[in-house]
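stage 2 :: seqdesign
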């Protein structure tokens, strides 16, 4: 025979558990909130569209410490534009984080430029960062090169005016930074529109591209110019000598020698071959060295 009192007791326990279970679960959830992604402080993402090509690019912008302080509301800042933004923007943000706490370094606004939305990143950067339609590279990589001029028009006519309208940027103190194809692009801009940027951070440039066309471009520039008014940091790892199609270290040395042979009066050039560094690890070191040289010396 079933005991009615015992059954009623069991029923009461079950009801109590059903009432308490959601409370216990909520308490545990409050004690262990869901993990959050880490975000770079003082950074936002914009989208800018190229009118000429219809391509849209994400633009990452980070302002320095104190940018929003009332005491700095009229202050303008130097700006660094970084190609390959998904990688270089994170590196540059980390490199400049600690120096911003000291008075020896200037605060800078960082602008990282991503790849065209909806495109393969390698295909996007190959097109945008290379200045000639090298058929050999198209066959090797499967990506179409030669869109640097179109990309530079987008930067100059759309992206830079947008950023410099939205943020307190000193347009006379722009820096262009890039690695590999990004370094090639920076070197190309330096010789085609040198006045567009005050400083150039050229990391492990792909000077081999287009049958070393950059060497011929520099010769053409030197034949019609007596000066190159720019501050240029150029760094390459000493282990970038066997990349199959090129010797980046040797190309770096030859290009620097060619630039220095011109004796451009207003060219400030720093060249470094980084000991025990390869292509994959060169940019963080190059950006650190270049930032100290450019933004520390300005405060002296």
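stage 2 :: out
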């Amino acid at each position: 025979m079933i005991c009615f009192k015992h059954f009623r007791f069991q029923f009461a326990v079950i009801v109590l558990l059903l009432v308490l279970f959601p409370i216990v679960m909520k308490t545990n959830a409050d004690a262990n909130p869901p993990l959050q992604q880490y975000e770079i402080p003082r950074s936002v993402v914009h989208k800018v569209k190229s009118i000429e090509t219809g391509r849209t690019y994400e633009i990452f912008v980070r302002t320095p410490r104190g940018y929003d302080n009332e005491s700095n509301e009229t202050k303008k800042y130097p700006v660094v534009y970084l190609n390959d933004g998904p990688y270089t923007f994170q590196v540059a943000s980390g490199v400049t984080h600690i120096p911003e706490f000291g008075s020896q370094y200037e605060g800078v606004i960082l602008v990282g430029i991503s790849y065209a939305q909806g495109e393969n990143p390698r295909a996007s950067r190959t097109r945008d960062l290379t200045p000639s339609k090298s058929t050999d590279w198209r066959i090797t990589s499967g990506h179409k090169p030669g869109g640097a001029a179109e990309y530079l028009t987008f930067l100059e006519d759309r992206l830079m005016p947008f950023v410099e309208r939205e943020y307190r940027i000193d347009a006379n103190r722009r820096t262009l930074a890039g690695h590999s194809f990004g370094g090639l692009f920076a070197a190309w801009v330096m010789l085609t529109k040198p006045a567009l940027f005050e400083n150039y951070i050229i990391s492990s440039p792909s000077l081999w591209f287009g049958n070393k066309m950059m060497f011929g471009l520099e010769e053409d520039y030197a034949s019609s110019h007596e000066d190159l008014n720019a501050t240029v940091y150029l760094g390459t790892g000493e282990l970038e000598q066997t990349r199959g199609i090129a010797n980046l270290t040797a190309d770096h040395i030859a290009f620097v020698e060619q630039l220095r042979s011109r004796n451009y009066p207003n060219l400030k050039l720093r060249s470094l071959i980084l000991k025990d560094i390869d292509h994959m690890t060169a940019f963080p070191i190059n950006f650190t060295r270049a930032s100290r040289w450019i933004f520390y010396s300005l405060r002296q």
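stage 3 :: structure notes
- The chain has nine helices and eight strands.
- Residues 95 and 117 are 27 Å apart (CA to CA).
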